[in-house]
Amino acid sequence: MKILIIDDQELVLLTLEKYLIDLGYLVKKANNMADGIAMYDEFQPDLVITDVDMPVVANSSFEFKSLDYIKKKSGLEIIKHIRVLKKETTPVMVLSGNRQLDVISQALSLGAADYVIKPVRLDIISMRVENLIGKVDTDKKNTKKERYIHESCVGVIIPCYYSLETMLSEEFIKFVNTNLNYHLCFVNYSYEEMPTKILNKFCKGKRISVLNFDHVVHKTEAIRLGMLHLEKEHQFEFIGFLNEDLSVNFDTFKELVNIISTSNYKNVVGLEVGSSNSTFWGFPIKHFVNKKINGFYKKFSEKHSKEKNRFIEVFDNDIVKDIFKNKFLLENKFEEEISNRTKCFFGDDKWNDRVCVKLLKLA
Questions:
Q1: CA–CA distance, 272 with 121 (Å, rounded to integer)
Q2: What is the edge-to-edge ordering of all strands in the sheet holding 238-241?
Q3: CATH of 152-361, one of 3.40.462.20, 1.10.8.60, 3.90.550.10, 3.40.50.10350
């Protein structure tokens, strides 16, 4: 049985494609409306799984015939193409993070057989697929029940100077194998080119990448170029960076992603301090909750702590280009420069509403 997947997020396509192939289905995929419709006509699938909000990306050879052209809800146009223009009964499953009741109602009214909201477990998707077109007669079994298709995709920059073998811990490998909506990009600022074959041993597909440079760059410049590199891909809703020694664990990074994805913040800063006597730009930190830290971060950002506190950050993709378009002036004032740039971008009156500073750990 044949399944066509249409989604603009490559991580979703790769994850779902591999999962369904492992279950015995023949799968093809497209990342925009126009290619999806063209592939439907050619592939003649038994089931279509489509997102709602996708780019149209119509090429010159594609003639769009529907009268109701809805760019932001192009997944609905795919249903119209199948039901109205082709007058075919091929089942369509909508798989989307769009929870708007009017959109769900439109999709079902147009003839969608199912509407599944992200995030959702992969085994739930397989049950829905079997309900629509049946189970493939195969000996293959997929036992990865706890894996999810997530609502948003996240890009993570990891600056790297050391050998990759020393960084590939069990925690790292576990994170890669279980967090299918994360793309990890190692930015190499060492003298030697970093091989990708080591990473490919642990992860197939494009959920891990290495960005090498043709000249030596400082760590802050490597992070800046890495952030801009992922921003251009447009599939990531959030992009952030970790310490090069991976000393801040991935669960902590996910905590920051959860904050930014469930709030109006555009930037979440995570500070990990080494002791209860640590200072935050010269100010005692142990007595302050997050809201107060925000205020002191703004007021005392020109001061420096005598202790070196590690920090990680997550940004909404919408502001990455503006914050990282220019080179940073000083390596040892990286976090301060980011703070100043976000303040200039949002303005003093809106900074506290758009930037969250999260205290990660008090030892």
A1: 32
A2: 208-211, 182-188, 154-160, 238-241, 310-316, 267-272, 355-361
A3: 3.90.550.10
Q: In whole angstroms, how far apart are CA 234 and each of 31, 100, 112, 204, 229?
A: 12, 22, 27, 21, 10
Mean pLDDT of 59-76: 52
Q: C-alpha dihedral over 211, 250, 9, 109, to 10 degrees?
A: -170
Of 93-102, 182-191, 225-234, which range is least confident? 182-191
State the DSSP code for 69: -
Find, among 241, 310, 306, the residue nearest to 277 by Cα: 306
SS3 (DSSP) at 310: strand
**284-331 residue pLDDT tens:** 333 344 444 455 444 444 443 434 445 789 999 999 999 999 999 887
- DSSP summary character for residue 244: T
Please give the model's pTM, rounded to 2 decimal places.
Answer: 0.66
Residue 159 has pLDDT above 60, yes or no: yes
Amino acid at 362: L
* CATH number belonging to domain 2-133: 3.40.50.2300
Q: Is the peptide bond before 119 cis (omega within 30 degrees of 0)?
A: yes
- The Cα 51–Cα 13 span in angstroms is 10
Give residue-wise pLDDT tens across range 116-144: 998 888 889 999 999 999 998 766 555 45
| Gap between the Cα atoms of 15 and 33, Å rounded | 19
pLDDT at residue 263 tops 70: yes
Decide the pairing of beta strands 238-241 and 208-211: unpaired
DSSP code, position 322: H
Domain spans, the chain: 2-133, 152-361
